[in-house]
Amino acid sequence: MNPEIGQYALVLALALAILQTVLPIWGARVGDAALMRTGPALAIGFFGFVALSFAVLTAAYVQSDFSVLNVVENSHSLKPMLYKITGVWGNHEGSMLLWVLVLAIFGALVAVFGSNLPASLKANVLGVQGSIGVAFLLFILLTSNPFTRVVPPPAEGQDLNPILQDIGLAIHPPLLYLGYVGFSVTFAFAVAALLDGRIDAAWARWVRPWALAAWAFLTVGIAMGSYWAYYELGWGGWWFWDPVENASLMPWFAGTALIHSAVVMEKRDALKVWTILLAILAFSLSLLGTFLVRSGVLTSVHAFATDPSRGVFILCILIFFIGGSLALYAFRAPMLRQGGIFAPISREGALVLNNLLLTAAAAAVLIGTLFPLALEAWNGAKITVGPPYFNLTVGALMLPVVFAMPFGPLLAWKRGDLAGAAQRLMLAFGAGIVIAAICLYAQGGGPALAPLGMGLAAFIVLGAVVDIAERAGIGRVPAASAIARLKGLPRAAWGAAIAHAGVGICLFGIIAETSWNAERITGVKLGESFTVGGYELTLARVEPRNGPNYRDLAGIFTIRRGGVEIGTVESSKRVFLARNMPTTEAGIRTFWFSQLYVSLGDELPGGGIGVRAYWKPLVTLIWLGSVVMALGGVLSLSDRRLRVGAPKPAKKPKVVPTPAPVAAE
Amino acid sequence: MTRKGRRLVLISAALGVLGIAAGLVLFALNDTIVFFRAPSEIAAERTAPGTRLRLGGLVKDGSVVRQDNAHVRFVVTDGGADIAVAYAGILPDLFREGQGVIAEGVMEGDGSFRADTVLAKHDEKYMPKEVADALKKQGVWKEGEATQ
């Protein structure tokens, strides 16, 4: 297909986005139903043209059309097909186009599934979405056009950065963008509500599914990015506090706070002003993330070579949307009516605590990420704020959050009974102590911090079980009716419990990996052995191989435990021919939830080869736990009360009514 | 409790959390930041031994010596001064002589540097910003010049 078609489609999409910004909002202002109704059609048209443009760029990559500069710079005719396709967003221009495509998808989804929204709210939401589309399409067309041609076209492309030639590129960026940009919908709802000057519990019910979906995508997106970095970069770390990772973590904190405060707003008509602010903040932090990644102001593994005009442009977008929405908020928020009062010890109170700590954590990460930039601008000093800062601040702020987590769901709305909740958690708490004692024994004494952490993780997982058991009345009612109640529990209740259990699972992995991992750096010759974490590794063979666009030197190690051979693991040094760039392919063997991780270094003067090997206990739980969290979110999303198309929430599902957790009042 | 009382509890809780968070942030920032230094800056200010910092510059041509136990020695230069670096571990894939590098570690008493982390970039077109700035200051490298 002709690349110019892609460019024309983008220009047409821009025209539609401008109309989508102006017409529905104008219609909502003057109360013109016909103007308001243009929103959905424009949003779907916008999606159509952006999708066409994206398809054209993808086709250029698939056909290796080297008359397009973007393809020349990031593709190669010998590259496997999967990486030709993923290469579309493995560069600055293409990734921005993907960003806009995801925005268009969400806009179209609101247009299609938003039939139960009040006309003016829907018109305003689509209008705000349109304005975001205008800003980013202008950015693409003016500074980052992916369809620029080269004359004359070269015979061969420069290939994609080898680090990116991985299945991870097919998974991590799209999921992350679905999360980032998903918050544009909640942002649009917040701004629309402010424009309307009206907000009630129904608003929270409309917003929650979008917030949950965005949050679930962001959770998995971050986790997959972490796993990708873990196996691809060859040094076995799964979180580096890299500015760009921080940029994804900040909206995650804000989004997590949002899905919790939206519950309070929906159920109790309280925290309205705060929830609106969180919706604005979550997307503002997503925009900030886009700015940090795409402007090149920070040194990061994600930075593509960039030119400064782009940074200034994104900064302008940032100032317009964040500044504009916060100004509108400051202007309109005082007019919103407050409702629902509650005692400090109550479900609401627990959720407020959660919100305070999560936003404080987001702020701490924000300060740590931007402080070096601010300091350099102020006095030119170049500093790094590294892992110790983030571990200390985020760790200290998250500790009370995770400890309070099992208590929250057991407290009643309005006024809770903390002693009663503690009593019902006794068993889980006791089990946590036992786990901690076992870990302390297995560790052979020493500092008790890690065993206590494992106990805390167990307490959280079991606390989630207690939550479900209490709701079903297990132990208080006959078994048959308890099972019936279990089946009848709303999906949102299951979702919350599963997501909370996921946090505990993730915590198991984090603590075990950071406390008990073993590292071994050494040089080995053929037939030589070394041990790491109780496993004996022997370099059995060294094999040169050829791939489609790389040469490979693989080291194959046999693994022995207690003298018995239990398998092999293979790590390699790969040289990608087009860029003559080496990468390390780590060898990973999974034993239950733990992993043996081997990466090859350089050849040594004495004829051996450098090896870096790790034993990483329970490391996979970090990502499995995150996936469980996201599953909880998805399950909650499927709750019939929240179903996006559901006309009215009034009809209760015909199942055994679930008693609110009974506090002994 | 009255509505006002409850709001007071809420606000004081919020302020409490905010205060704790601010305290934590200040404490941690004070304690954990690491300064970036180019070799000529270290030479000029005679950085005290034991100081933790990030050293950035170019890996001097012909200076990389690999030892059998996967220990490496190399020299980082910015054109104005050289610093010898010792590192135990596997070097990143894009670590090459003549290329930009950032090493994090501690100054030793003899003016050399013991690195525990060595970073090279993940894209051969890309020069770490700090290193580019430091080299520009010494007039070794100019904007837009190829870095290979």
UniProtKB/TrEMBL annotation, chain A:
It is found in: Cell inner membrane. The chain crosses the membrane at residues 6-28, 40-62, 96-113, 125-144, 175-195, 207-229, 249-266, 273-292, 312-331, 352-374, 394-413, 425-443, 449-469, 489-512, 618-638. Residues 315-640 form the Cytochrome c-type biogenesis protein CcmF C-terminal domain. GO terms for molecular function: lyase activity. The keyword Cell membrane applies. InterPro entries: CcmF_C, Cyt_c_assembly, Cyt_c_biogenesis, Cyt_c_biogenesis_CcmF. It is a multi-pass membrane protein. Pfam families: CcmF_C, Cytochrom_C_asm. It comes from the Bacteria. The keyword Iron-sulfur does not apply. Residues 89-295 form the Cytochrome c assembly protein domain. Keywords: Cell inner membrane, Cell membrane, Cytochrome c-type biogenesis, Lyase, Membrane, Transmembrane, Transmembrane helix. Required for the biogenesis of c-type cytochromes. Possible subunit of a heme lyase. Belongs to the CcmF/CycK/Ccl1/NrfE/CcsA family. NCBIfam families: nrfE (TIGR00353), PRK10369.1 (NF007691). PANTHER family: CYTOCHROME C ASSEMBLY PROTEIN-RELATED, CYTOCHROME C-TYPE BIOGENESIS PROTEIN CCMF. This is Heme lyase CcmF/NrfE family subunit. It comes from Ancylobacter radicis. The lineage of its organism: Bacteria, Pseudomonadati, Pseudomonadota, Alphaproteobacteria, Hyphomicrobiales.
TrEMBL record, chain B:
Keywords: Cell membrane, Cytochrome c-type biogenesis, Heme, Iron, Membrane, Metal-binding, Signal-anchor, Transmembrane, Transmembrane helix. It comes from the Bacteria. It is found in: Cell membrane; Membrane. Residues 29-148 are extracellular. Its main location: membrane. Heme binds at H122, Y126. Residues 1-7 are cytoplasmic. Signal peptide: none annotated. It is a single-pass type II membrane protein. NCBIfam families: PRK13254.1-1, PRK13254.1-3, PRK13254.1-5. Heme chaperone required for the biogenesis of c-type cytochromes. Transiently binds heme delivered by CcmC and transfers the heme to apo-cytochromes in a process facilitated by CcmF and CcmH. Belongs to the CcmE/CycJ family. This is Cytochrome c-type biogenesis protein CcmE.
